[in-house]
Amino acid sequence: MFRYYECEKCGKKYFPRKIRCYCGSMSFKEVVVDKAIGSISTYTVILVPPKGFTPPIYIGIAEYDGMKILGRYVGDPERLKVGIKVELHNDDGTTTFSPIE
Questions:
Q1: CA 37 to chain centre
Q2: What is the pLDDT of residues 17-40, one digit of tens each?
Q3: What is the three-class DSSP state of 85?
Q4: What domains does the chain contain, in order, with CATH numbers?
Q5: For residue 18, what is the DSSP state?
Q6: Which PANTHER family does this UniProt record tie to the protein (predicted)?
Q7: Residue 93 backbone zone (phi > 0: left; psi -120 to 50: alpha; other: beta)
Q8: Are 25 and 8 in contact (CB under 8 A)?
Q9: What is the SS3 assignment for 66?
Q10: How far is CA 65 from the centre of its chain?
């Protein structure tokens, strides 16, 4: 499941939610999709992560429906490449990407 926000005035999509849209509106609706498929546009590997995380951590930006979304890649590191298709999830409060099998 993936949640994002859409301006009710102009239709621009955001994740995370903004306080005010570029059009000036402050009215947004929450959109929930069961399956959000995007593609990795860039990524990095964190070898010395913050306390509480086990290295390495794979962080990327996925493009989905015109949005660029920062999240953690949780699949096989050998498959992580720019352009691969991933499913986006944020139903537990964190944003993760898993590769499409």
A1: 10
A2: 999 999 999 999 999 999 999 999
A3: strand
A4: 2-99 (2.40.50.840)
A5: -
A6: BLR3430 PROTEIN (PTHR34075:SF5)
A7: left
A8: yes
A9: coil
A10: 11
Tens digit of pLDDT for each residue in 69-83? 999 999 999 999 999
Amino acid at 69: I
**48 and 54 in contact (C-beta within 8 Å)?**
no
What integer is the mean pLDDT of 35-61? Answer: 96
Residues in the chain: 101
Tokens of 37: 């498929």
Q: Is the pLDDT of residue 101 over 90?
A: no
Q: Tokens 């920062």 appear where?
A: 70
- Long-range CB contact pairs, 4-9, < 8 A, 24+: 4/30, 4/31, 4/33, 4/65, 4/67, 5/29, 5/30, 5/31, 6/31
3-state secondary structure of 12: coil
Between CA 81 and CA 60 the distance in angstroms is: 10
